[in-house]
Write a structure and sequence with these properties.
The chain is of the alpha+beta class. The chain has one domain: Aminopeptidase (3-Layer(aba) Sandwich). Helices cover about 30% and strands about 25% of the residues. It has 4 helices and 5 strands; from the N terminus they run βααβββαβα. Strand 2 (about 45-50) and strand 3 form a beta hairpin. It is globular, with a radius of gyration of 16 Å.
Length: about 150
């Protein structure tokens, strides 16, 4: 098992993992998005490779805008974390969190933030087990306005 930072050699693998986590997205869109991450100093991803297969990732950014509960900026933000189902409950996500914390500190952040869908109990429990403290719960609304 190796944790590798995002490079041009594994960017396609990251896009495939993105689509596994966010199946409503297309590979083409996510591949373009992942290529953009490579050129940004305030974003990165770490991937876990097992033999010849990438099986997990953590995608991170540095944010300077409002983040619930943040006490200093920039704040490192865990934009997404994913482990293929057959590799879950093996400690891989915890290893990715540790690497994310290291990147956050190296990037000048004293906190790591994240968010979870309100009904994703498995992810909520993972975050709590990983040392995250729940800051707030919200329900978001939107109303389409008809033109004319």
């Amino acid at each position: 098992m190796q944790i590798k930072e995002l490079t041009s050699e594994n960017v396609e693998a990251l896009a495939h993992l993105f689509v596994e986590l966010w199946p409503e997205c297309t590979f083409e869109t996510e591949f373009e998005y992942c290529k953009q991450i490579l050129s940004k100093e305030d974003q990165t991803a770490f991937l876990i490779k097992q033999k010849d297969e990438y099986i997990a990732f953590a995608y991170l950014s540095l944010r300077n805008d409002f983040v619930e509960g943040a006490t200093s900026y920039p704040i490192a933000y865990l934009e997404g974390i994913y482990v293929k189902e057959s590799y879950r409950n093996t400690g891989l996500a915890s290893k990715l969190i540790q690497r994310a914390e290291q990147w956050a500190k190296e990037s000048g952040s004293s906190q790591l933030a994240s968010d979870v869908e309100i009904d994703n109990e498995q992810s909520i429990q993972f975050h709590k087990k990983s040392g995250f403290l729940e800051e707030n719960r919200i329900v978001c609304f939107i109303k389409d306005l008809k033109s004319g």
